[in-house]
Every structure is written in structure tokens, then in C-alpha cells.
Amino acid sequence: MTRSRGSSWLLYGAYGYTGRLLAAEALARGHRPILAGRSEEKLRQLRKELAEGAIEALGCELRAFPLQGPALDEGLRGVEAVFHAAGPFLETGAPMMEACLRAGAHYLDITGEVPVFEAAFERHDRAREAGVVLLPGVGLDVIPTDGAAALLAVALPSASRLELALHSPGRPSGGTLQTMVEGIPGGLLVRRGGHLERAWPGRRAFRRQVDFGPEPLEGPMSGRLGGLRSVAPCTWGDLATAWRTTGIGDITCYLTMPASQRRLLPWLLPLLRQVMKVRTIRRVLRSRIQARVAGPDADRRRTGRTRVWGRVEEAGGRWEEVVVEFPEGYRFTAMGGIRALEAVLASRVPAGTRTPAGTLGSSWILALPEVEVVERRSGG
């Protein structure tokens, strides 16, 4: 375990659902992050709650500031790194990245939004010149999928096509749903020939099912993880990151979805895109989600599991598949995210915009707690 007690880093959005998990994980691993966000009252309450489980939390500095104006620059004063956990990142990512570049502070986040990744890669040269690491997507998206993509690229270096699918049973948090709302107007994207393209989800070429491997023999997830699962194409962050990690130009991402919903998606998504283009509608929907939706409880986070399926193919017909199992998504985000931060603080990540597996290696994910390869397949 790498502990960077001497470093000063800031967790922005610390009192959100995922932010709280990140803060608790950081304290458990010996860090004393600066807890930050817009509301000082919520930060004080968070520190009080954290202190009930770890007395060291009382020593955490609090900083309340908005994501615009001089207050943002002042909020990052003296900070070596920022872990940004306040979405939707389509709105908050660019201002925080720019502030980090001005402050000379490393930037990490838990985004899953393709435009945010692309915006980070557009800043690669500036980040390298500033000696700053930009490492977006150090959560459920994209550490597991980026790792699976890297493992497959090593197994079949000549691959020209990559497919990834995520199966994560359980309900999302309010923050995740708000991010999904903001992403709907962008529609479905795929990568072809190295370029992002819009696609209709009803294309016959898209997969309808994916084999997520054998079921667990026992436990609360038995019957919920493996076997053939209905999937639908989705705009996942790996469309941006896996291309940089593997160099594979044709990438499609999938998410498990009941067959009845998958069949409706080609007709429902265009309608939703038009409705969600109205900012007022998105704002009202996000407000209701924030007020009414809570993420998985502690027991669900403890017992839940997630699986990632990946497949690469080469022009000659050879192919490789892998199924990798991870802890429940939000718990994994805290575990993986803080360990990625530790790698940055330990100077194991070169300056510039990076991807988790592309920087830390294809085997890095397998060293994370409770991560295992469930099945490998090959053919052709």
C-alpha cells in the first residue's frame, strides 16, 4: 500500500454519495484529504460523520468554494492533486481541469462521459508542459473496462475490433442518474476507424446477448452474474479511453438491459434526445433525482459484484474474450480511485492526459482487491 501522508490533495464533491465513499476509503488508507465542495455546512456535517468511524477525520481541512471565478483558484491553493467527484462532469469537468492546469495540480475524476474524456485528451500537451497528470475515469468507468481492454490487447496485439460490456446489478446513485440525463442529448456513439460516429441502436450488427461466464456457485449474487445476458449498445467512456490504451480503432460498448427495454431503445432514444435537449427539462429532472434517489446501501455494496466482458478480433478471424469480476461498482470506485490517486502522488504516472491501464499496465487491475479473471476464451 502506498501512503502519501506528506502530500496535500483535495477531494471535491466530498459530501456526494460517491464522494463520501472516496473520503472513507482515503481515511482508511492513511490519507488526510482536504474535503471540499460548494457547501461548508455539508462539509462540516460530513467531517463529523466520518469522525465517528475514524477520529483522524477531525484533522481534515475543509474548503467551500464554487467552480467558477477567483474562488476556484483560491480553493486549489497549495494543493498537489485534486480528486474531482462532483458531477455532472459535462458541466464541472472543464472548469476544474483548467483550474488544475493553472495551479499545477494533478487532476483525477470519476467521469464516464465521452466528451469529458475527449476534453481531457485535448489538454494533453498543456498538461505535459505544466508537469500535470490528467487522469479521468478512475472509477467503475473506466478502470475495469480499460483493464479488460488492455488484457485483450496483450493477448491479441493484431486486433482491429474491440467490444466491451458491463453487467452491474443494482440501482445507481442519484449522481449517476443525473450524469445519464445530461448524456442523453448526445445519443449513441461508436468508434470506427479511430473516429467517433453516431449510430442507431437498432443496427443489426450490434450484439443482442453476451456470455458473462459461469455463475457463482454460492452467495447472494448466484444466478445474477453469469450466463447469457441481454445487452444494448451504449455510449461508454471507453470509446475515448480504450482507443488510447489499445490503439484499436473500432470499438463498441454495451450495457446489460432487459430484452423488452432493449427492443424499445431504437425508437425511444431519438425521442428522449429531443426532449432532453431542453435544458429546463434536464434541470427539473436532475433536481427530482437528487431529492429522491439514493444509491446502494452498505450491505449491497459489501455483497454486490460486477462483471466486465471483452472481446477483440483481428481481420484474419482470430479472437480473444475475457470475463473479469469486480466488487460492487460504487465500492470498487472508492477502492480503485484512491489507489489510482496513490499512483499519481507516487509519481508513477507521467505528465499529460492518461488512461488507467494505459499508464499503469494491463495487470494493474488484477492486483486490486477482489478482482479476478473468471474466464478466457479464444478461437478462429
Structural topology:
Blueprint: E1 9-12, H1 17-28, E2 34-37, H2 40-51, E3 62-64, H3 70-75, E4 81-84, H4 89-103, E5 106-109, H5 114-122, H6 124-130, E6 133-135, H7 143-155, E7 161-167, H8 174-183, E8 189-192, E9 195-198, E10 209-211, E11 228-234, H9 238-246, E12 250-256, H10 259-276, H11 279-292, H12 298-303, E13 305-313, E14 319-327, H13 329-345, E15 352-353, H14 356-360, E16 372-379
Parallel strand pairs: 1-2, 1-4, 2-3, 4-5, 5-6, 6-15, 7-12
Antiparallel strand pairs: 7-13, 8-9, 10-11, 11-12, 13-14, 14-16
Helix pairs in contact: 1-13, 4-5, 5-9, 7-9, 8-11
Looking at this protein, list some descriptive labels.
380 residues, alpha/beta, Rossmann fold, Dihydrodipicolinate Reductase, domain 2, seven-stranded parallel β-sheet, seven-stranded mixed β-sheet, 14 helices, 16 strands, 40% helix, globular, disordered N terminus
Description of the structure:
With 380 residues, this protein is an alpha/beta fold. It has two domains: 9-139 and 332-360, NAD(P)-binding Rossmann-like Domain (Rossmann fold); 143-328 and 362-379, Dihydrodipicolinate Reductase, domain 2, CATH 3.30.360. The chain contains 14 helices and 16 strands. The chain has helices at residues 17-28, 40-51, 70-75, 89-103, 114-122, 124-130, 143-155, 174-183, 238-246, 259-276, 279-292, 298-303, 329-345, 356-360, and strands at 9-12, 34-37, 62-64, 81-84, 106-109, 133-135, 161-167, 189-192, 195-198, 209-211, 228-234, 250-256, 305-313, 319-327, 352-353, 372-379. The strands form three sheets. Strands 3-2-1-4-5-6-15 form a seven-stranded parallel beta sheet, with helices on both faces.
